[in-house]
Design a protein that fits this description.
The longest helix has 26 residues. A hairpin with a 5-residue loop joins strand 7 and strand 8. It is elongated and about 90 Å long. The two termini are about 15 Å apart. The protein has 2 domains: about 50 residues; about 130 residues, Immunoglobulin-like (Sandwich), CATH 2.60.40. The strands form 3 sheets. Strands 5-2-1-10 form a 4-stranded antiparallel sheet, with no helix packed on it. Strands 4-3-6-9 form a 4-stranded antiparallel sheet, with no helix packed on it. Strands 7-8 form a two-stranded antiparallel sheet. The chain is of the alpha+beta class. It contains 2 helices and 10 strands; from the N terminus they run αββββββββββα.
Length: about 190
């Protein structure tokens, strides 16, 4: 009976160790802050001119550093085909129709966006997020298509800059878990040897 119990205990400890590793803190490295949709063509005076819908919204995601309940907008400068579409903010939610001076059918479109303020901010869950100052949204035809299709959309994703040093609290938590697991295993083995 004791051999059976020690075998099951030896199977439990690697599982516990694996679970400890999986419970390491997870940090957001990207946030979806909106979308771009290809509306199609058809401006009255120019029927082949491309149109895009820009939607930006970060309500509930970004908070001011010193006042955690205050939402703060992100401000982006948007460019497409070398044309400056203008400056847009995410709070209140932006729903703008862009008609760049370009004609479609289009085989691909690239939007370049720049954040005008790149200070770190806190997410709704309290985690610190340092945004990358530039982001790119690329449109390419759907599989089997030659050109962009009306209604095709792409998410606008803001990525965080990599943190050069892991958080000390996370490392301390992981080290304590590993030491506790090693101590329990050592005691069990010592008790079995007696």
């Amino acid at each position: 009976m004791s051999a059976l119990m020690s075998w099951s205990a030896s199977r439990r400890w690697p599982l516990l160790f694996a679970l400890l590793l999986l419970t390491a803190p997870v940090f957001a490295d990207s946030i979806t802050i909106g979308s771009l949709t290809y509306v199609g063509t058809g401006v009255p005076d120019s029927p082949r001119k491309a149109k895009f819908e820009l939607y930006l919204n970060t309500e509930g995601l970004t908070f001011y550093r010193d006042f955690p309940r205050w939402s703060v907008p992100l401000i982006l400068d948007v460019q497409v085909f070398g044309w400056d579409a203008g400056v847009f903010q995410t709070i209140p939610a932006t729903g703008a129709l862009l008609d760049p001076p370009h004609y479609c059918p289009c085989e691909g479109v690239v939007f370049n966006m720049s954040l005008l303020e790149t200070y770190p901010f806190r997410l709704a869950n309290g985690k610190l997020f340092t945004p990358s100052p530039t982001l790119t949204v690329s449109f390419y035809p759907l599989p089997g298509q030659t050109y962009l299709q009306t209604g095709q959309s792409a998410a606008i994703v803001l990525y965080s800059l990599p943190s050069p040093v892991p958080e000390p609290a996370s490392l301390l938590l992981l080290a304590n878990g590993l030491l506790a697991t090693a101590g329990v295993v050592w005691r069990k083995r010592r008790a079995l040897m007696r």
